[in-house]
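Project standup — Tuesday

K.O.: blocked on the structure for the chain from last sprint. Re-posting the sequence here as requested.
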Amino acid sequence: MTELDWSKLTFSYTKTNTILISHFDGSKWSEVESNSDDYIRLSAFAGALHYSIECFEGLKAFRGKDGKVRLFRPEENAKRLQRSAKYLGIEAPSTEMFIQMCERSVRENIEFLPPYGSRASLYLRPTLIGSNPQLGVQSSKESTFILLCSPVGAYTGGVLEAIDVVIARNYDRAAPNGTGAFKVGGNYGASLASLNKAHELGFKAVLYLDPATKKYIDEFNSSNFFAIKGNTYITPLSTTILPSITNMSLEVAAADLGMEVERRPVPVEELPTFDEVGECGTAVVITPVHKLVDKPSLESEEETVYTYGDGLCGEKSLQLFNYITDIQYGVREDKFGWTREVEI
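H.V.: unblocked you, prediction finished:
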C-alpha cells in the first residue's frame, strides 16, 4: 500500500484492500464475498437507484494505547440499521452477521488502521441497498449488504476546531412523520441544497429547525445538536432527529461526570442562554460551535449572531470528548461495555 501520512487524514475516501458483500435473494443471505475492487455490479433497474431504497451506518475501529483494536458499540449500529431497513421494507443482516462482517473488514484492512496517538481511526460504512430490478414503487425483495472502510482523520479538518454554522429556516432536511429518524440516504440528499448554499456563505454546517413549527432546534445536516448550560447537558427531543449513538453515549458520560442531562424540546429563543454548543456524531464525536448565525432565510442579509467561547472547545465539551475517546482508545476503563475487541 502507499504510505499514508496519518496526521493529514481528513474525513475522505482512501482506497483500502477489500470490501465485503453479501446478497439476500429473498430467502437467505449468500456467503460473504471479499472483493479488492470497490466497484459493485448492480442492475440499472435496482430499487436503490430509482426510489432511494437504501440505508447505511457509520462506526469506527480504534487502535488502543494497549495495542488492542476496538469497535465502539457496533451492536447499536446493527440495531439502527435493522430499524431503518424495516422502515424501507427490506431485509437487514442479523446483529451477529453485522458484527462479524465489521470485524472481518478490520482484519482484512488492518494496515489502514491508524496508530494510537494519531487521533485517527478506521471508519466503517455498512451499507444496505435494495438491489433487485424493479419498475414499480415498492420495497425491494432482494437486498445487498456491503461493508466498506476507509482511514479517516477529523470530519471538519481538525480535531475540536470550533466552527461557524447557520440556521436554515427556509429549508428542511426531513418532514413531520417522515424519514428524519432513520439513517436513509434521502435525508442527506435533502440537505445538500442548503448545505451548498451555507458553504458559499462561509459556514461549515447547517442547523435545521423542526419542520412543523420552526420553533425548536432539530439537528445539523450530518449530526445531532447539544448544548451546555451551567452543569447541564441539553439535547433536543424530536421525532424528526436521527437517534445518534454518540449523543446517547455522551448523555451517559455527562451523567457519570456529575452533570444533569435533559433531552427535551429546545426552543430557538434559548440559544443565547447556552455556555457551549456543539455537533456530535460518529465522524466528529464533538465539534464545538463558535458562531451560530440565524437568518430569516439563507439568502437574507438580516441575521442574529450567537457566539460561544473564543473559538476553542469549551471546558465541559472537552471533558465529554475526552471521556468518550479515552474509552475508544482504551485509556479509560470501559465500565459500560461499549467497546468490542477485534481479534487480529
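K.O.: great, moving the ticket to review. The chain has a mean pLDDT of 95. The chain has two domains: 6-152, 163-328.
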